[in-house]
Amino acid sequence: MSLQLTNEQLTAAAREFGTPLYVYHAEQIKQQYEKLLSAFNGSKVVFFYAGKALTNLNVLHYINKLGAGIDCSSINEVKLALHAGFTPQRILYTSNGISFDEIEEAVSLNVNINIDSLSNLEKFGQKYGHGYPVGLRLRPNIMAGGNIKISTGHDKSKFGIPVEQLDKILVVVKKYSIKVTDLHIHTGSDIKDADVFIRGIEVLFDIIPHFPEMKSVDLGGGFKVPYKDGDEEFDIDLVAKKVKHAFDSHPQARNLEIWFEPGKFLVSECGYFVTEVNVLKETAATTFVSVNSGFNHLIRPMFYDSYHRIGNISNPGGTEKNYSIVGNICETDTFAWDRSLNEVREGDLLVFYNAGAYGFEMSSNFNSRLKPAEVMFEGGKARVIRKREAFEDLLRHQVHP
Ligand code: LLP
User: Is the pTM of this model over 0.90?
Assistant: First the structure.
């Protein structure tokens, strides 16, 4: 049984805190984390939450309390994670194209690091030699994920050191006697096929024997969540079974820890984005419903053509009609075209589901609009975990002419 916030809870939150509003449900994060633990029960597995999906400190703090680690994609995410209470041992910095200064800072903060270029590996070797354990982010040349924009492991992707450059990696590792303890891949987001992970493992298994100090294999994140009605739930039990089998049957991998970096799987479904209808506009082509938001607050539909379920929680029994749901941004910002909704009136609350991951996190101040507030329900009670921006925030870092 999946936990969901009710229409009444969402309506009450909108009344109390205003709209547009991001609402998160802590217990849904817990439920997802427990699904992972139970699927991988019996394997030596560690889950590093991909913090880039949603970095509100309260969410990080909650996930830390659940016992997960965190995967970071910038030095500031590392600092936020420390701020939220994660210990350095449970922080992983999977770098990509970053300056060596950030790697030095990550070392000074004592966190785990995955290096993704030969250039930084060389600098790392020169400075730290065998003195600081490190992981290598590899590009396995596997096409995976729901959309080319979120596929990261294929042979034209910028991410990771291409596996065909193994000889070059080995030269650098040997030259400085670098202590390689982890091999990492992340092939994409919205992966529905368990076999993608097995193909990744097979690539890594050929490479493991070159690194006798290895402690873990990191298979990244990307577990798909059901965005559309009828979308299948990602079969985490099947992945767990296949991964366990692959590791158990490989003598050199058997004792390694298995790491994953789920983002969407942990925080997508816990998030509800509540908006209010400003204007209804009948046209020959469609009836537009303009809400008090836009791609400045939820960019996924415009950026990735993503589908988010939308519900009219103010009129759940209303007759179903077709509408095109758009924002109030001075640029085309269509959330959904020709979508069936219970009859919409101006002032109704429309909720975008599955908005926890890469929702608020990718929001901006485009059109000088303010970012929404964030609220978290825990134990049935809602509290503000980020204040709504005010006009002064737009001026904060500007230099007055
Ligand atoms: N690990 C690494 C190294 C990653 O780059 C990512 C996501 C993850 C883990 C987590 O992937 P997830 O489990 O969340 O799929 N903004 C896009 C998704 C971009 C994902 C970027 N990397 C979206 O809204 O669909």
Answer: yes
